[in-house]
Design the sequence.
């Protein structure tokens, strides 16, 4: 240990373990060892040992600032309360701030189209997860909105592309289509059609005209090949 470390420990012991006569009337609390734990208690009681804010640069800055002192943008400080109390106060303020936008946005959203992708059995317990990798992309030049996703189970080698016009009153051709990778990466005609079948691990738009996909071999064996491919959207 360096002399600096020893000084830190000595200062800590001096500050936190000195006698606290004001606590003598509290059962079992004769020494000031609860300076950290008191902030973490989930209760509304005042702190046993409130912090000393004398010399704090932030508080001095607020006192000297006429505009900031009364600003509604600054969250009020409660020096006598625990962090749990402050957390509840802040959550209440945040909920209040978000309620109005949520109401406005919620009323402005409406369903533009409904596409049936698959059907599931009546039993919810046996329903498999079929929808995967939804990735959104907005082509601002052409005012088109894209959704990339894959369907598991019976179509793991396909990636689906949903395209909609941002103006819901207009439609575009080929609103939804699927691209099948299959065995298109076979190097020679001697390879069988089933020897190197690929499925999509991930897919994102690289730009307005290019889709980047991560492919893997579908065969169940060690050392599966991974391929990073960029496909033109056309």
Sequence:
């Amino acid at each position: 240990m360096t002399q600096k470390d020893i000084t830190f420990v000595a200062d800590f012991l001096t500050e936190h373990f000195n006698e606290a006569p004001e606590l003598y009337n509290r059962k079992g609390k004769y020494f000031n060892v609860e300076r950290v734990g008191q902030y973490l208690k989930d209760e509304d009681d005042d702190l046993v040992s409130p912090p000393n804010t004398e010399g704090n640069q932030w508080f001095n800055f607020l006192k000297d600032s006429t505009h900031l002192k009364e600003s509604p943008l600054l969250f009020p400080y409660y020096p006598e309360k625990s962090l749990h109390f402050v957390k509840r106060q802040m959550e209440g303020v945040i909920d209040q701030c978000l309620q109005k936008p949520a109401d406005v946005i919620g009323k402005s959203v409406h369903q533009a189209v409904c596409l049936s992708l698959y059907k599931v059995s009546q039993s919810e317990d046996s329903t498999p997860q079929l929808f995967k990798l939804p990735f959104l992309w907005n082509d601002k030049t052409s005012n088109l909105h894209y959704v990339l996703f894959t369907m598991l189970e019976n179509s793991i080698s396909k990636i689906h592309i949903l395209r909609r016009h941002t103006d819901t009153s207009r439609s575009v051709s080929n609103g939804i289509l699927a691209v099948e990778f299959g065995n298109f990466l076979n190097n020679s005609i001697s390879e069988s059609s089933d020897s190197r079948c690929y499925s999509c691990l991930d897919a994102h738009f690289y730009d307005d005209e290019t889709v980047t996909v991560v492919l893997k071999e579908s065969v169940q064996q060690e050392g599966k090949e991974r391929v990073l491919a960029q496909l033109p959207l056309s």
Remarks:
- Residues 83-108 form the longest helix (26 residues).
- The longest strand covers residues 198-207.
- Residues 3-108 form one domain.
